[in-house]
Amino acid sequence: MFATGVKAELTARHFLPNESGPESSPHSHPYEVEWICTTTDLDSSGYAVDISMMEGVLAEVLGAIDNVLLNDLPYFSTRQPSLENLATYLHQRLGESARAAGAAFATMEIRIWESPTAWASYRE
User: Fold this and answer.
1) Overall number of domains in the chain
2) What is the pLDDT of residues 56-98, one digit of tens each?
3) What is the CATH number of the domain that holds 81?
4) What is d(CA 61, CA 43) in angstroms, rounded to the nearest whole number?
5) DSSP per residue, 16-78
6) Does any domain span residue 85?
7) Model pTM?
Protein backbone atom coordinates (compact mmCIF):
# COMPACT_ATOMS: atom_id res chain seq x y z
CA MET A 1 0.00 0.00 0.00
CA PHE A 2 1.29 3.47 -0.91
CA ALA A 3 0.42 6.62 1.04
CA THR A 4 0.67 10.21 -0.18
CA GLY A 5 -0.07 13.19 2.04
CA VAL A 6 -0.14 16.94 2.22
CA LYS A 7 -0.79 19.37 5.05
CA ALA A 8 -1.90 22.97 5.48
CA GLU A 9 -2.99 25.35 8.21
CA LEU A 10 -6.55 26.30 9.07
CA THR A 11 -7.93 28.79 11.54
CA ALA A 12 -11.22 27.30 12.66
CA ARG A 13 -13.77 29.43 14.49
CA HIS A 14 -16.57 27.82 16.47
CA PHE A 15 -18.39 27.55 19.74
CA LEU A 16 -19.66 24.44 21.44
CA PRO A 17 -23.35 24.64 22.36
CA ASN A 18 -24.31 23.05 25.68
CA GLU A 19 -20.79 23.59 27.03
CA SER A 20 -19.77 25.98 29.76
CA GLY A 21 -16.72 28.17 29.98
CA PRO A 22 -14.64 29.53 27.11
CA GLU A 23 -15.69 26.80 24.65
CA SER A 24 -19.30 28.06 24.78
CA SER A 25 -18.38 31.44 23.23
CA PRO A 26 -17.10 31.97 19.67
CA HIS A 27 -13.34 31.53 19.54
CA SER A 28 -10.71 30.26 17.11
CA HIS A 29 -8.12 27.51 16.95
CA PRO A 30 -5.04 27.30 14.74
CA TYR A 31 -5.10 23.80 13.30
CA GLU A 32 -2.80 21.86 11.04
CA VAL A 33 -4.73 19.63 8.64
CA GLU A 34 -3.17 16.53 7.11
CA TRP A 35 -4.77 14.77 4.14
CA ILE A 36 -3.46 11.27 3.44
CA CYS A 37 -4.54 9.12 0.46
CA THR A 38 -3.58 5.48 -0.05
CA THR A 39 -3.44 3.37 -3.20
CA THR A 40 -2.54 -0.23 -3.87
CA ASP A 41 -0.73 0.56 -7.12
CA LEU A 42 1.21 3.33 -8.81
CA ASP A 43 0.01 4.94 -12.02
CA SER A 44 1.92 4.74 -15.32
CA SER A 45 4.09 7.69 -14.22
CA GLY A 46 5.06 5.99 -10.96
CA TYR A 47 2.79 8.07 -8.70
CA ALA A 48 0.19 7.03 -6.16
CA VAL A 49 -1.72 10.33 -6.04
CA ASP A 50 -0.76 13.66 -7.64
CA ILE A 51 0.62 15.84 -4.83
CA SER A 52 0.05 19.11 -6.68
CA MET A 53 -3.63 18.20 -7.18
CA MET A 54 -3.90 17.38 -3.47
CA GLU A 55 -2.27 20.68 -2.48
CA GLY A 56 -4.63 22.64 -4.73
CA VAL A 57 -7.76 20.86 -3.54
CA LEU A 58 -6.73 21.17 0.11
CA ALA A 59 -6.05 24.91 -0.30
CA GLU A 60 -9.43 25.42 -1.98
CA VAL A 61 -11.45 23.46 0.59
CA LEU A 62 -9.69 24.97 3.60
CA GLY A 63 -9.81 28.46 2.07
CA ALA A 64 -13.60 28.24 1.92
CA ILE A 65 -13.85 27.77 5.71
CA ASP A 66 -10.75 29.55 7.03
CA ASN A 67 -11.85 32.01 9.73
CA VAL A 68 -15.52 31.17 9.06
CA LEU A 69 -17.71 30.39 12.08
CA LEU A 70 -18.23 26.65 11.61
CA ASN A 71 -21.53 26.78 13.49
CA ASP A 72 -22.96 28.82 10.58
CA LEU A 73 -22.25 26.10 7.99
CA PRO A 74 -25.27 23.89 7.12
CA TYR A 75 -23.26 20.73 7.90
CA PHE A 76 -22.93 21.80 11.52
CA SER A 77 -26.56 22.84 12.01
CA THR A 78 -27.26 19.42 13.55
CA ARG A 79 -23.73 18.52 14.67
CA GLN A 80 -21.36 19.76 17.32
CA PRO A 81 -18.48 21.58 15.57
CA SER A 82 -15.99 19.31 17.29
CA LEU A 83 -12.58 18.36 15.95
CA GLU A 84 -13.91 14.91 15.03
CA ASN A 85 -16.90 16.32 13.12
CA LEU A 86 -14.64 18.83 11.38
CA ALA A 87 -12.45 15.92 10.23
CA THR A 88 -15.54 14.17 8.84
CA TYR A 89 -16.68 17.35 7.08
CA LEU A 90 -13.27 17.84 5.47
CA HIS A 91 -13.12 14.17 4.50
CA GLN A 92 -16.37 14.53 2.55
CA ARG A 93 -15.42 17.81 0.86
CA LEU A 94 -11.89 16.73 -0.05
CA GLY A 95 -13.05 13.37 -1.35
CA GLU A 96 -15.69 14.98 -3.58
CA SER A 97 -13.25 17.54 -4.97
CA ALA A 98 -10.42 15.06 -5.53
CA ARG A 99 -12.63 12.58 -7.35
CA ALA A 100 -14.05 15.39 -9.48
CA ALA A 101 -10.44 16.18 -10.42
CA GLY A 102 -9.94 12.56 -11.51
CA ALA A 103 -8.08 11.22 -8.48
CA ALA A 104 -8.39 7.55 -7.62
CA PHE A 105 -7.39 6.14 -4.24
CA ALA A 106 -8.26 3.24 -1.97
CA THR A 107 -8.65 5.13 1.30
CA MET A 108 -8.15 8.59 2.67
CA GLU A 109 -7.65 10.03 6.12
CA ILE A 110 -8.01 13.53 7.51
CA ARG A 111 -5.94 14.24 10.61
CA ILE A 112 -6.35 17.57 12.38
CA TRP A 113 -3.70 18.63 14.87
CA GLU A 114 -4.88 21.06 17.55
CA SER A 115 -1.49 21.11 19.25
CA PRO A 116 1.93 19.51 18.69
CA THR A 117 0.77 16.52 20.74
CA ALA A 118 -3.01 16.22 20.18
CA TRP A 119 -5.04 15.34 17.09
CA ALA A 120 -8.27 13.73 15.88
CA SER A 121 -8.83 11.99 12.56
CA TYR A 122 -11.40 10.40 10.29
CA ARG A 123 -10.46 7.59 7.88
CA GLU A 124 -12.53 5.69 5.37
Assistant:
1) 1
2) 999 999 999 999 999 999 999 999 999 999 999 999 999 999 9
3) 3.30.479.10
4) 25
5) -TT--GGGGS-EEEEEEEEEEEEESS--TTS-SS-HHHHHHHHHHHHHHHTTSBGGGSGGGGS
6) yes
7) 0.93
